[in-house]
């Protein structure tokens, strides 16, 4: 068998084959009969491979043992067509086949797996089970026979060929190792420190030891793994940033992320490995469950202080072994509360889109490749293609499927709390072990303790979106207020959008100001078919969804909101409201304001309590809400006043936190968040401190002591640099030589923070810019752009780019060439061309405009040419004389506009240069979208330049990165920032590209992301502008 190496990922000296969700389609996928028949059940795979890393093909054979179950007609002929990459069973149409090797790859087909591999002896090979016998050949090759696995689904098969070095610890009979590049063995402190403890807790939780499922626990850090996940049975693969730390300098958020990651991976041995899903429509029943269980276990593991001496054995390809002793000491990480603001609130934002999908789907609705990929990327536990870690406060939860774990978190309380939930999960595992499950069976098992619960669970699993509960005073007496509840689906509005209105059975928890109890006892389930009235003391406030742990929003009428606002503003009373409910109210009211159901005036009135709020969680919710608005107002005064408003409130909670921080893990998160936002909003002390730290670091005078702050220091220093080119190249050189994955991630993010024009002094920047424009513009237009950039640099930086020799070879029509043509060419022959040239350049007219030019257009031409003269840097007198104006004021206006144009061009050139440099370098695929998003993270000019870049380089990007997941990630990131009409139209044209013909979901989701922003800007933005321009 000879196969092309589609799923084999070559990364330096690493060869990784894993089939996890890499589904190859055959043909006729619109035909629903492509599914494998249930008459053939695979039992065993014997895979024999020969792998040569320096070749793009591998060879081998596979023998599949299976049972044939006869139904009405016997199966006469079964064969595998290797050349056409599909499996044929009698006359059934071609179906899905594993790209790595032919197999029955539907998740319900579980079979034993045996591997024999031959490969160069200097390499190490890993797979899902422990190595058996090895033998060497005379030609420098080695053959390894692996032990046969338990029955597993084929998408869990992993094969890793590498020169990685192993770090191992002792754990009774289990083979536990961590594989990294040779320079990564010093960065396994967290996983080696927590692995055994996590596994012990999982064994105790489920009461079925891991060793009963798997014989090994191998974890590998892959240098470039765009999906971020793969191999969830025996061999677990990660991105380097998801598993490697930084030794003693490890930021606390990195420690947290790694522990949650490990716990989630290991939990899949039970849920996903032993229990398989019936079909991709139900994949959440294992993936989300494993992730939620991983979160529960990690919360326990990180709560207690650990101080264990760990004896590590480091072994490499040289055969030498050495020992190291480390200790792990941590404090309470409070993951349980972080879950509310990082997961549940994120879910509430994501699933407010009109295009939101239900958690579970019917099998018949998930049949095509696009349908399956959508379930695996959007609705399963792993958000594989949307949120790489680019922010120090974005943690492991950003890689989870927020909807799946949020619903399970809610189910936890609905089923009686942690201990009852644990009993149910244990019973579910015992019942379904080594078999397949689906949503029906999973919810049946969860609801077994009480028959009335099952329809409630199904209601949440199969209904898209989530509800908003509206609370309004129905009537009042001297002693009692009566409030009435109503519900509807919460959706961000967009033009011409329709969505199905559904009813939810909503678990209600509540308290009132005279009886503030924040326990999580569910009082009742709100059925939309019944009246829902609450009676309580007159004048009191009432609060629903205690601790914000359930998946719905709450809106109150203005009277009830103002009662809550009054309480929040009182320093003595505010602390009585649970900190998570303070965060919930901020998150709810600002998101409801995006729909017009509550005014922004009321939202900002509620936010005034933040000036005296010192806790992390309410501020995390508030800054997330503010970040949606910043950069979208298109009113300089309002934008500046909003920034000042946020910065002034931040100063009250912490004037300026300094290192070392005092407090626990959440306090560190708060201090880092304050510093990042203070620097982002140009707090003078914050900027100066970052500049000093960066300069000392650059000059070798001191190291960056706290790596929690590294990203902010790099970003702030680069944004305010006096020599951007030098500082940019300094960080770029560190990136290319660094062995620290988290340092590389921080640098990539920071490189997009640049907004200083001095970078334009680099001749190659300009050459790249004009070379790109030469593909789309005529020489006359290029000359106008050249003049604008040239005059800009002369005025502001005293740099004469006319002395850059390379630019003279670019396709630009110089001013001297134009002057020579106008003065020397014969008027009799070239008069019309001269007129067209003058009007085309001075008036910025295109060909079709020149053809249709009339006398009435001359005034427009005069104004356009005045603009270009200003852009060329001429004085006001020249502009007045050219345009025939007597007023200096009019001419001065053109000069002011010219400065704005120059700044815009300077920033666009800068962004293009940055993107071209990084995209064309040997950058990891997993980082492509990070690079792209970094340039428009908070800058409207950066966004516009990124739009131009993607539009002009779309074909190149497609050829460089044909994977739909990379392309869709870039498109989604762009769409989330777009709100202007012209940009929205541009996006719709972009996603109409034929490459997305088979990916309708990418098109609809991208358009929806921009459409809700566009609708908001047209309908609700002016409220904020009025607030911040009339104060």
From TrEMBL:
| Residues of the ERAP1-like C-terminal domain | 541-761
What is its subcellular localisation?
Answer: Cell membrane
Metal-binding as a keyword of this entry, yes or no, is: yes
- The Peptidase M1 membrane alanine aminopeptidase domain sits at 196-460
* Keyword set, alphabetical order: DNA recombination, Glycoprotein, GPI-anchor, Hydrolase, Lipoprotein, Membrane, Metal-binding, Metalloprotease, Protease, Signal, Zinc
Signal peptide residues are 1-26
Q: Which segments constitute the Aminopeptidase N-like N-terminal domain?
A: 86-156
> Where the protein is mainly located, per its record?
membrane
Membrane association type: Lipid-anchor; GPI-anchor
Identify the Pfam families for this entry.
Answer: ERAP1_C (PF11838), Peptidase_M1 (PF01433), Peptidase_M1_N (PF17900)
Cofactor(s) required for function per UniProt: Zn(2+)
Spell out the InterPro entries in the cross-references: Aminopeptidase_N-like_N, Aminopeptidase_N-like_N_sf, DNA_brk_join_enz, ERAP1-like_C_dom, Integrase-like_cat_sf, Peptidase_M1, Peptidase_M1_aminopeptidases, Peptidase_M1_dom
Q: Which family does it belong to?
A: Belongs to the peptidase M1 family.
Question: What is this protein called in UniProt?
Answer: Aminopeptidase
């Amino acid at each position: 068998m000879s196969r092309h190496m589609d799923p084999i990922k070559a990364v330096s000296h690493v060869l990784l084959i894993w089939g996890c969700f890499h589904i190859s389609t055959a043909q006729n996928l619109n035909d629903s009969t492509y599914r494998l028949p249930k008459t053939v059940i695979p039992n065993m795979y014997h895979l024999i491979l020969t792998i040569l890393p320096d070749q793009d093909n591998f060879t081998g054979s596979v023998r599949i043992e299976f049972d044939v179950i006869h139904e009405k007609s016997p199966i006469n002929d079964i064969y595998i067509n290797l050349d056409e990459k599909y499996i044929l069973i009698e006359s059934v149409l071609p179906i899905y086949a594993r790209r790595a090797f032919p197999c029955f790859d539907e998740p319900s087909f579980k079979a034993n797996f045996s591997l024999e591999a031959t490969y160069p002896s200097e390499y190490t090979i890993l797979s899902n089970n422990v190595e058996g016998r090895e033998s060497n050949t005379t030609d420098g090759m080695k053959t390894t026979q692996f032990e046969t696995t338990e029955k597993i689904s084929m998408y869990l098969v992993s094969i890793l060929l590498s020169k990685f070095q192993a770090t191992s610890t002792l754990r009774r009979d289990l083979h536990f190792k961590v594989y990294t590049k040779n320079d990564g063995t010093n960065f396994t402190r967290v996983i080696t420190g927590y692995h055994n403890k996590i596994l012990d807790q999982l064994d105790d939780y489920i009461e079925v030891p891991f060793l009963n499922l798997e014989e090994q626990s191998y974890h590998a850090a892959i240098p470039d793994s765009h999906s971020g996940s793969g191999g969830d049975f025996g061999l677990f693969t990660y991105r380097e940033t998801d598993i490697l730390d930084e030794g003693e300098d490890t930021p606390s958020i990195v420690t947290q992320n790694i522990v949650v990651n490990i716990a989630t991976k290991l939990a899949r041995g039970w849920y996903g490995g032993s229990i398989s899903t019936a079909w991709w429509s139900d994949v959440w029943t294992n993936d989300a469950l494993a992730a939620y269980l991983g979160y529960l276990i990690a919360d326990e593991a990180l709560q207690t202080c650990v101080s264990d001496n760990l004896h590590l054995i480091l072994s490499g390809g040289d055969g030498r072994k050495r020992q190291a002793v480390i200790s792990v000491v941590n404090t309470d990480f409070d993951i349980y509360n972080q879950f509310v603001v990082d997961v549940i609130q994120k879910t509430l934002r994501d699933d407010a889109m009109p295009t939101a999908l239900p958690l579970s789907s019917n099998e018949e609705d998930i049949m095509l490749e696009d349908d399956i990929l959508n379930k695996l990327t959007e609705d399963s536990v792993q958000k594989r293609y949307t949120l790489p870690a680019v922010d120090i406060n974005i943690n492991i939860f950003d890689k989870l499927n927020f909807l799946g774990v949020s619903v399970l978190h809610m189910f936890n309380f609905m089923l009686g709390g942690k201990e009852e939930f644990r009993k149910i999960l244990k019973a579910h595992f015992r019942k379904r072990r080594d078999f397949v499950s689906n949503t029906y069976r999973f919810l049946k098992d969860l609801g077994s303790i009480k028959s009335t619960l099952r329809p409630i669970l199904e209601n949440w699993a199969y209904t898209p979106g989530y509800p908003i509960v509206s609370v309004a005073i129905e009537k009042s007496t001297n002693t009692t207020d009566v409030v009435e509840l109503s519900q509807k689906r919460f959706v961000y509005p967009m033009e011409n959008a329709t969505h199905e209105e559904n009813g939810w059975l909503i678990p209600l928890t509540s308290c009132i100001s005279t009886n503030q109890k924040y326990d999580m006892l569910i009082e009742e389930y709100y059925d939309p078919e019944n009246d829902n009235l609450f009676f309580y003391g007159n004048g009191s406030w009432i609060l629903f969804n205690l601790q914000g742990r359930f998946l719905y929003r709450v809106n109150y009428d203005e009277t009830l909101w103002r009662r809550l606002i009054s309480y929040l503003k009182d320093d003595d009373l505010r602390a009585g409201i649970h900190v998570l409910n303070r965060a919930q109210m901020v998150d709810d009211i600002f998101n409801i304001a995006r729909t017009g159901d509550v005014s922004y005036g009321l939202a900002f009135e509620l936010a005034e309590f933040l000036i005296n709020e010192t806790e992390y969680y309410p501020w995390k919710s508030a800054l997330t809400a503010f970040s949606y608005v910043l950069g979208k107002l298109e009113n300089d005064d309002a934008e500046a006043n909003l920034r000042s408003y946020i910065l002034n409130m931040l100063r009250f909670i912490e004037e300026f936190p300094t290192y070392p921080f005092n407090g626990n893990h959440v306090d560190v998160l708060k201090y880092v968040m304050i510093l990042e936002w203070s620097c982002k909003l140009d707090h003078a002390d914050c900027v100066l401190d970052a500049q000093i730290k960066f300069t000392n670091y650059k000059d070798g005078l001191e190291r960056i002591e706290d790596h929690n702050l590294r990203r902010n220091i790099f970003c702030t220093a680069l944004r305010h640099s006096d020599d951007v080119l030098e500082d940019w190249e300094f960080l770029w050189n560190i990136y290319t030589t660094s062995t620290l994955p988290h340092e590389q991630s921080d640098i990539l993010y920071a490189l997009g923070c640049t907004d200083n024009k001095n970078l334009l002094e680099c001749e190659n920047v300009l050459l790249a810019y004009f070379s790109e424009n030469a593909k789309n513009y005529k020489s006359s237009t290029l000359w106008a752009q050249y003049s604008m950039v040239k005059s800009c640099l002369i005025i502001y930086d005293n740099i004469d780019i006319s002395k850059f020799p390379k630019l003279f070879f670019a396709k630009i029509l110089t001013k001297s060439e134009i002057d020579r043509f106008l003065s020397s060419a014969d008027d009799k022959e070239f008069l019309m061309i001269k007129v067209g040239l003058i009007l085309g350049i001075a008036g910025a007219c295109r060909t079709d405009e020149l053809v249709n030019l009339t006398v009435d257009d001359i005034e427009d031409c005069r104004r356009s040419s005045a603009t270009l003269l200003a852009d060329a840097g001429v004085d006001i007198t020249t502009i007045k004389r050219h345009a025939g104006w007597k007023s200096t004021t009019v001419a001065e206006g053109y000069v002011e506009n010219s400065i704005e144009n120059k700044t815009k061009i300077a920033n666009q050139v800068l962004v293009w240069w940055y993107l071209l440099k990084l995209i064309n370098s040997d950058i990891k695929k997993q980082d492509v979208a990070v690079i792209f998003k970094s340039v428009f993270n908070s800058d409207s000019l950066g966004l516009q330049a990124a739009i131009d870049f993607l539009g002009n380089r779309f074909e190149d990007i497609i050829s460089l990165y044909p994977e739909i997941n990379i392309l869709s990630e870039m498109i989604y990131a762009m769409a989330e920032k777009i709100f202007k009409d012209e940009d929205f139209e541009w996006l719709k044209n972009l996603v109409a590209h034929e490459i997305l013909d088979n990916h309708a979901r990418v098109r609809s989701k991208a358009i929806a992301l921009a459409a809700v922003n566009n609708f908001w800007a047209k309908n609700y933005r002016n409220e904020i502008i009025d607030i911040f321009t009339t104060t």
